Every structure is written in structure tokens, then in C-alpha cells.
């Protein structure tokens, strides 16, 4: 039978692998793969919580604690990058919306005030 500490070591190794994969996917902008990792991380963290409840603090070595800190730091870095990326996408969408609205509201008119541009058309018409 596997000891709780050995189970914890395996979970930590898997969490490290997942955070490394997440970092690689962030670099590649492979957001679908990042989303797929979320359920795996949640499952591992639930297992982690269950095992930690069974352990006495004295059973956790300095090495395990250091590995957990490193994983936590990488996960926080990944989360910060993802948050900044999401904010950038929201800002880009808002800017594009403003540009489209400005284009829609800017018209070309003839001398008598008639609109020469149909906002839904893809071309501008001219009159002689």
C-alpha cells in the first residue's frame, strides 16, 4: 500500500507537469489546451487536500514544501499571464467596437445632404 507521503509526492509531480504544460500552452497561445488542463488540476488539488488532511505537519519534508512553493509560484505566474491576456483581448474588442461604431456614424453626403454611403454596404458610391 502506498503511503500518504508517497501519494503526495506523485500528486506534486503531476501538478508540476501540468503547470509546465500550461506555461508551454500559454507561450503557444493554445488556449483550448489550457482549458482542458483545468479539470485535471482541480482533480489533483482535491486529492491533495484529502491527503494533506491525513498527514501530520511533521511528515512534510522541507523538499516537499519547497516543491509546493515552486508549483504555487508558477501557477500564480501562469494565472497572471492569462489574466493579462484576457484583459488585452477585452480591450482590443472594445477598441474594435469603437472603430466600427465610428465608421458606421461617419457618413459621406452630397451637396443636398443625401447620404452617399449605405452603412451596411461594403463600398462607397459616388455621384457625378
Offer a few descriptive terms.
128 residues; single chain; mainly alpha
Summarize the SSE layout with pairings.
Blueprint: H1 4-28, H2 31-54, H3 62-105
Helix pairs in contact: 1-2, 1-3
pLDDT averaged over residues: 84
The helicity comes to over 70%
The figure for the number of domains is 1
Q: Shape, please?
A: rod-shaped
What Rg do the Cα atoms give? 27 Å
Main sheet specs: none
Give the uncertain stretches in residue-range form. none
> Which structural class should the secondary elements be placed in?
mainly alpha
Distance between the termini: 90 Å
Give the SSE string: HHH
Total number of helices: 3
Number of strands: 0
Could you tell me the strand content as a percent range?
under 5%
Question: Can you walk through the features of this model?
Answer:
The protein has helices at residues 4-28, 31-54, 62-105. The model has no long low-confidence stretch (mean pLDDT 84). It has one domain (4-105). With 128 residues, it is mostly helical. The chain is 73% helix and 0% strand. Helix 1 (4-28) packs antiparallel against helix 2 (31-54) and helix 1 (4-28) runs parallel beside helix 3.
Amino acid at each position: 500500500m502506498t503511503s500518504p507521503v508517497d501519494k503526495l509526492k506523485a500528486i506534486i509531480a503531476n501538478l508540476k507537469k501540468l503547470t509546465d504544460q500550461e506555461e508551454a500552452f500559454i507561450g503557444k497561445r493554445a488556449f483550448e489546451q489550457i482549458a482542458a488542463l483545468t479539470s485535471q488540476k482541480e482533480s489533483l488539488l482535491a486529492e491533495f487536500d484529502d491527503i494533506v488532511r491525513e498527514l501530520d505537519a511533521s511528515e512534510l519534508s522541507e523538499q516537499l514544501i519547497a516543491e509546493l512553493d515552486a508549483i504555487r509560484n508558477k501557477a500564480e505566474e501562469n494565472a497572471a499571464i492569462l489574466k493579462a491576456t484576457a484583459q488585452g483581448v477585452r480591450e482590443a474588442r472594445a477598441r474594435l467596437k469603437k472603430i466600427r461604431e465610428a465608421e458606421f456614424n461617419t457618413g459621406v453626403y452630397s451637396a443636398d445632404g443625401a447620404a452617399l454611403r449605405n452603412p451596411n454596404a461594403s463600398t462607397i458610391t459616388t455621384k457625378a
